[in-house]
Amino acid sequence: MDYMKISLEDADKWLKENLNEKRYQHSLGTAECARELAQKFDQDIEKAYIAGLLHDCAKCFSDEKLLEIIDKYLDDVDEDERSNKKTLHAPASCYIAKTVFGVKDAQILSSIRWHTLGKIEMNDFEKIIFLADKIELRTRSDEYRNKITKDLYKKNGLNKAILECYKETIKSLVDRDLKICPLTVEIYNVMEKTINVN
Length: 198
Known about the structure:
The protein has helices spanning 8-18, 21-40, 45-54, 63-73, 79-82, 89-99, 106-113, 124-135, 142-149, 157-175, 182-197. The chain is an all-alpha fold.
């Protein structure tokens, strides 16, 4: 099935032209990791690869351009998300995936939209893209990746790995005296409760 209106070669060319080299390598790494996770967790491999490839397509846009896209075209970005410049690219990337790359698949678009903050009750496909972004082999450190993946292939492994992501994110934000988005705390609490129940 074709999930984009343009070819992979044209998508790759666009990414090379619009991302810096590190972000381009990260996008390839996320696509490769997403494909591997999709195979392990019985999800659509091609779809996962495309979601991983495009998840950061707006990452190198200026903050002004990201806010312009959000203000003109998107109505699901709340003030907490708007106030964090590190998360602006997620909704904008979803918009670019839809308008530039012609992606119509709801799972791909949702996984791109929520790959930074996550959301309550992510489905397995969304969890895979969320995780692939954090643990891909090309630019993420072994130390960080090993913390996240230690229980990934055990019972309830996707949820355990995502909970570890949130733990590491919250620790990092506290260590740097940065604001923690209320949604991050809410998701952490829900995930922690879910895992302890199971």
